[in-house]
Amino acid sequence: MTSNDNQLPALPDDAAPATEPPAAVAAASEAIWFHEEDGSRKGPLTEAEMVVLIGSGKVTGSTAVWKKGFPDWLKLERTELKAYLDDKAPPPLRGEHINNTVIWVLAFAPLIGLMLEYFVAGIIYRNGRLAELAVENNKYWFITVALNIGLCYYDEHRLKLAGHDTSKFKGLAFIVPVYLYQRAMALHHNLAYFIVWIACFLFIMVA
Questions:
Q1: 13-84 is classed in which CATH architecture?
Q2: For the whole prediction, is pTM greater than 0.85?
C-alpha cells in the first residue's frame, strides 16, 4: 500500500460543514425588546413574543418599550411595533363623548358621604342629637370611604369600556385624590374635579 492510499479524499464543495448559527443562538440574537410593567422592566423579548403580548392586550400602544439604539423609553405606538396594533379597533372616546357624571359625583363625594352618615345615624338613633354625636365621633366614617372608593372603581370601569388604558391609575382607587389627578392627566382634562374634591374634603375636616 502506497502513501497515497492513506490520504483521505477531499470533500466536495457542497459537503463543506454548515456555518449557520444554531436556532437557539439566532433566537437569542432577536431578543432585543424590553417593556414596562407596573414600574418594572420586562425582557429581553423577541419581536414575536412582543406581538403575542400586543395581541393579548397586556402590552398596548401606550406601553413604554425600549431596545438597543433607542435614546430613551418610547411609547410602543411610536416604534415599528405599531404595525402590530389592531388598526381596526376604534380610538378611545374623548372629550364630550365621555360621560363625566360619575367623576363629578365623586368630586363632591366627601360632602355626599357626610350627608349619608347623618342619614344613616338618624335612622339608627331616631334622635337628632344622638345622631349628630355619632357622626362627630366618626362612628360611620366607613360610609364616606366606601362611597369614594366605590365611585373610583366604577369610573375606572367606565373609562375602560370607553377604550382607555387605565393601567396607570387602576390601582389608585384607595387614594382618591391621586386617582383624580392621574385621571385628569391621562385624559388631558383640567384639574377641576380634583380641586373640587380637595375643597370638599377640607371643608368637612374643618366644619
A1: 2-Layer Sandwich (3.30)
A2: no
